[in-house]
Amino acid sequence: MANRAVKLIDALAGALVMAAFAAFGMLICAVFPLKKRRLGKSADVVQIYISIIDFRKSVLSTYKEDILIDGFIKKSLCFHMDFELEHDDKADISDGISMSVVSVHPDTFFARAGFRKLTACWVEIRTLCAMIRAAFREHATVVRAHDPHLLGFNALIISRLAGIPCIIQVCSNYELKDRQAKGLTCRPFMFKALERWFERFIMNSADMVLTDREHYRSFGIIPKNIPLTKYVNMGFFVDAIHYAPVLSRTSMRSSLGISQDTKVLLYVGRLCRVKYVLDLMSMFELCLKERTDIVLLLAGDGDLKDEMKARAGRGGFLDKVIFLDRVPQDKLPDLYYTADTVCFTSSGFTMIEAALAERCIIAYDFEWHDEFIGKNERGMLVPFGDCRMFAESVLKVLADESLRKDLGRLARGYALEHYTRAPSVEKERRAYKRLLGLEEGLS
Length: 443
Fold this sequence. Notes:
The protein has 2 domains: about 40-235 and about 420-435, Glycogen Phosphorylase B (Rossmann fold, 3-Layer(aba) Sandwich), CATH 3.40.50; about 240-420, Rossmann fold. Helix content is about 45%, strand content about 15%. The chain has helices at about 1-30, 65, 110, 115-135, 150-160, 175-180, 190-205, 215-220, 255, 280-290, 305-315, 330-340, 350-355, 370-375, 385-400, 400-420, 420-435; strands spanning about 45-50, 75-80, 90-95, 95-105, 140-145, 165-170, 210, 230-235, 265-270, 295-300, 320-325, 340-345, 360-365, 380. It has an 8-stranded mixed beta sheet with strand order 3-4-2-1-5-6-7-8, with helices on both faces. Strands 11-10-9-12-13-14 form a 6-stranded parallel beta sheet, with helices on both faces.
């Protein structure tokens, strides 16, 4: 009974604190309109970067250069709110880049007593104050946030108080993926409609909305009324090792104990609900009814790993599924090369990695997938949630080596043409220059 009372008090008090915080933030945005400050051409660009990830764990070998946009940004002060760490952490990870990782659920007496939501609220307010102090202390010239939710709201408040431009980066289709699977990292606004309103408010109030995929605008995650002058699709790229010639790779079949005549299906990514990976088990079981000379490799980790193992065990095909956990980045090119086809229920950068390995891709017609695959031109799309058609598509390409190789070749060619580093970095740099008054216009 006491535990229930603590949870109820924690939930109600947390909701009240977040409501007060939201009201305070809205007041700040209303009272402190953005001061249009233009930099001189010799001024240093200093950025407050509120990130959904800890950049120290980045898989990109060029991440330091990417954060600083190849030296265009003089200093970047990165902040990340972590839901797993028990204590805060801070480190200078490169010349010009500092990383402050804040524990949302610190190991404190108050949190152990059951007041986790109130503790998280206090952490949020404390972190915002730290970011505001950093913005003034370091004479920040721009603030950037990795989502249009709580992180974006923080960025907007900092922007108005410090009088600097605000960039909101959209990294996901929250409507299709995060909300549907209840996967938002932090749900401070409680209700979907309220979250959607805040998204639109924050993006409309920002000075730039930055994306890596056109899908987010075409789908409607980015409000249609945001002018093209404020919207930038910079594109994206993957680690440089994936662009190496395909013939430079080595098959991992021997080390994995897979015979040469066995067909290999591969998935690379998190084993979590927002990736819909349980569908892979249903699809694979259907494939096994038609042919048994196949294995499924799962390269990733997540909270569904045990459930997927149990599902394979109940279906009697656990010996056909190989769980590889997280594979180091330098081993991934060889892993993709090992596969006959790569299967995605939901993917991001991994689809480009698979394409650069010249592998045949089969994926749900979901989120941004059709932006890369087109109308089955560089892979095969199947209706979302249709495990039977997914299995039929897998069996089709496994039975047709010529089709499989053609789709893989076309996918690599398209990735090399549209998903390389130089154009993305240059577009991002020019967007910053325009925003800060260092260059007029974007071509």
